[in-house]
Amino acid sequence: MKWNLIVRTLAALGFLAAAAALVAAQGSVYYFPHVANGETGLNRFCNTLYILNLNNESEDAEITLDFFKDDGSPWVINIYGDRYNGTGSSFTQSLGDGATAYSATNPYNHDLEVGWLRVTSSRPIWVSSTYIFMDWDWNPIWEAGVLPATASRFFAFRAPITPHPLVGDTLNTALAIVNPGDQQVEINLRLYKFGELVATKRVNVPALGHVARFLSEIFENDNDVDGESFHVEVDAGFPVAVVGLLSRHNMSVFSSIPLEPSGTLVPNRMADIQGNESEATGRLITPPVEITGNLVANKDYFKVDLLAGQVVNILVVSSQLGSGLDPQLTLFNKFGTQVAYNDDMSTGCKDSFISYTVPSGGRHTIRISYGAGGGFGPFDPYRLIVSVR
Description:
3% of the residues lie in helices and 51% in strands. The protein is mostly beta strands. The chain folds into three domains: 25-143, Hypothetical Protein Tm1070, Chain: A; 149-264, TM1070-like (Hypothetical Protein Tm1070, Chain: A); 268-388, Jelly Rolls. The strands form four sheets. Strands 1, 2, 3, 4, 5, 6, 7, 8, 9 and 10 form a ten-stranded antiparallel beta sheet that branches. Strands 11, 12, 13, 14, 15, 16 and 17 form a seven-stranded antiparallel beta sheet that branches. Strands 18-20-27-22-25 form a five-stranded mixed beta sheet, with no helix packed on it. Strand 23 (327-332) and strand 24 (338-342) form a beta hairpin.
């Protein structure tokens, strides 16, 4: 098995964790930046895919699986499952509300090949994958659950690196980068040690293609690239999807590296918790923050500490995401007096927005309730975004 094929195969095992249960990359397009399928030596590689359509809608979701080779060309592959079956590079099926689909790539009697997968759906779906490495008797040696990767122009992460053979507790880091766009993208990889720039390398990824290499290979001609005090910045000209793998013990032990897009547009993201249905039990939050929640009762409360002169921007997004919730947004000052309110931010849009300049600092309360359009419960979520300036 060629070394670069090993790297490309292993580099796929990382995943980018989504912030909410309904994971989506750019709406309803989901990227799995690496697929390995086939036989090599006494081992087999394959990927499984799990899909759930749960939109509480009568309209079916039309879901297409597109497989690509490293160079971006269509990858003809054999898959089997309860809905997706056959040989080809593109497969389409419809799923009704509450329906599921399972599929797996078929490694039997195929030489090992690598590529990546794009899942496109007419409606948001739950989708995940499992990456499996097996012995010749089909017994799993290791496997990893993989969530869709998010496309962004900038990522940053800690990266142990060693140019030496992986023995004992030595570590190395591999990257797989996918370019989902229609033109080649140039990517700058910047390596830092203790916060100081060590080296910059450039990597070109073809349209719909991907590359995967160990960082020790990318920076192999640079001195002092050995240790655990490094971090790497991925800076791309166009949005790319990136996954990482931390490798140990000559690649016999691994763990995935969840990467999040970096930059000022990324807030603290969290899920709502129960017990904040009254003003007295409102959850304290720290902007910038994005919260995904549901109105299990008819109101949710959040508290935020604000300073005099600050401008607080509060946005509730629900209808624009396909939710049936018609939100209403209210802000109270530290004395419990209502100081701002919004129902519909504009004609034809049920979502709510408040921008308020704070005259007197203190702990303020945000209340989300529902309006005449109704819609609260598990199938009608909202996203609350709060920022200050």
